[in-house]
Amino acid sequence: MQARVTNRPVEQVIAAIQALDLAPIKYKLMDREEGHGWTREYADKTERGYKRFLTLLATHPEETLAPSKDVDKFWHGHILDTLKYAEDCDKVFGCFLHHFPYFGMRGAEDAANLARAAETTQRLYEREFGRQPEREVAYCGAISAEKAAYCGAIKADEAAYCGAIKAEPPAYCGAISAEKAAYCGAIKAEQPAYCGAISAEKAAYCGAIRADKPAYCGAIREDKLNVSLRPSL
């Protein structure tokens, strides 16, 4: 159970959340260099998801919740405008809403707690607002789960992940130590398929690359490589 984020009436908090002016946050997130290069449409959609996440924090104080990956990015963007974030928190909650960025990274039990928080958040979101858009259901943190897309440090089978991972025969995204798998990120491994900035031999890569006689996607200097994004089973 988490502490209540505010003592204000829920109706007042929800109205204040909906009245937030987050245009400056979206403007930066849409920038290709300073932000994430989001389209206006996706920035608007993620703003709506962020406001709904804040609403769930107010309406379900008894639950531990976790934002989706892109909602978390939006939250980070809001926090970076420190003056505005502090003012907005005071307008909405009457206090500062803190963000704990290490949830799920402190061992297996913490990872399992984050996985449960993500499931709870998705369940409550769908109950209150309807089904989340596909891109919004990837959660951010260290997670232990099967057959789902996550962002964080993860141990799992048969899933696509983003983060630092230890696992067997799946496709991964992050900094990884493994063999015979398809990977995305900065990796040390033998005979796998990679995506990211890599230095290796006899592997298939994906990233921005400098090389001779292979097919590449990634930042790599290598000879005699093949491309394959499927695991070697």
Descriptive notes:
The protein is α/β, with parallel strands linked by helices and 233 residues long. It has 2 domains: 1-163; 166-233, no CATH class. Helices cover 35% and strands 11% of the residues. It is built from 6 helices and 9 strands. The strands form 4 sheets. A 3-stranded parallel β-sheet has the order 1-2-3, covered by helices on one side. A two-stranded parallel sheet has the order 4-5. Helix 1 (10-18) runs antiparallel to helix 3 (40-59) and helix 3 (40-59) packs across helix 4 (69-80). The longest helix is centred in the middle third of the chain and has 22 residues, at 108-129. The chain is globular, with a radius of gyration of 20 Å. Residues 141-233 have low confidence and may be disordered.
Q: What is the count of DSSP helices, taking H or I runs of 4+ residues?
A: 6
Indicate the structural class.
Answer: alpha/beta
Q: How confident is the prediction overall: mean pLDDT?
A: 72
Instruction: Compute the separation of the termini in Å.
Output: 42 Å
User: How many individual β-strands?
Assistant: 9
Helix content: 25-40%
Query: What strand line-up does the widest sheet have?
Result: 1-2-3
Uncertain stretches of 5 or more adjacent residues: 141-233
Strand content is 5-15%
How many strands, what sense, and barrel or not for the largest sheet? Answer: 3 strands, parallel
The dominant shape is globular
| CA-atom Rg in angstroms | 20 Å
